[in-house]
Request: fold
Amino acid sequence: MNDLNRGSRGLVLVYTGDGKGKTTAAFGLALRAAGRGFRVHVIQFIKGAMETGEIDLIAKALPSITVERVGKGFTWRRDVVPTFEDHVAAARDGLARAREAVTAGTYQVVILDEINVALKKKLLETNDVLDVLDRRPNELHLVLTGRGAPTELIDRADLVTEMRCVKHPFQRGIPAQIGIDR
Ligand code: ATP
Ligand code: MG
Reply:
C-alpha cells in the first residue's frame, strides 16, 4: 500500500433511490479507485446478459477492474424462462462470490451492483448481506447499489446517497439511449 492509503478506512457506500445514476456512480467510483492503483471487483446482480458500454471498455482497457454477472434477469431463449428459484439460486451464488471477493485480500473496492433489488425481490435475506459487511477487512470499501435499500443496510452504511428522479426522458416516451443508458 502506498502513502495515499495512510489512515485509510473502509467505507460502506449505498446508492439507492429511483432516480438514474446509481450504477454509473458506482462505476465512476471504480474508475477513481483504479486510478489510485486499487483493484476493484464488481458483481452485478439481476442483470443477466444485458450489455452496457462500460463492461466492454473495462474488459478491453482496465485490467484492475473486474466484473462478473450473476443475475438471471434476461435469457436469450424465449422458451426458457427462469423461475423464482433460478433467480434465488443466482442471487445466492452472487452473494457467495461477494463473500469470497470481500475476504480474498485481492481487492480494495468491491461493488455489489443492484444487490438492493435482489433484497427487495426477496432473492436474498438482509441478514446474509449484513454478514458480508461484517466480514469486510478494515480497509475494504464496499459499494451497494439499487433501488429500495432496506433500513437495516442504511443504518449500517457510512454513506447513503438517494438518487431522486426529478425528470427522466422515459417519462416522455424517449427510449434508452446507447452511451447514456447502456
Ligand atoms: P444507471 O445505470 O444509468 O446509472 P441506475 O443504476 O440509477 O441507472 P437502475 O434502476 O439500475 O438505474 O436502472 C437502469 C436503467 O433504467 C437505465 O437505463 C436508466 O436510464 C433507467 N432508469 C433509471 N432511473 C429511471 C427512472 N426514474 N425512470 C425511467 N428509467 C430509469
Ligand atoms: Mg443500476
Observations:
- The first strand starts at residue 12 and ends at 16.
- Helices lie at 22-35, 53-61, 84-103, 115-120, 126-134, 151-156.
- The two ends are 34 Å apart (CA to CA).
- The first helix runs from residue 22 to 35.
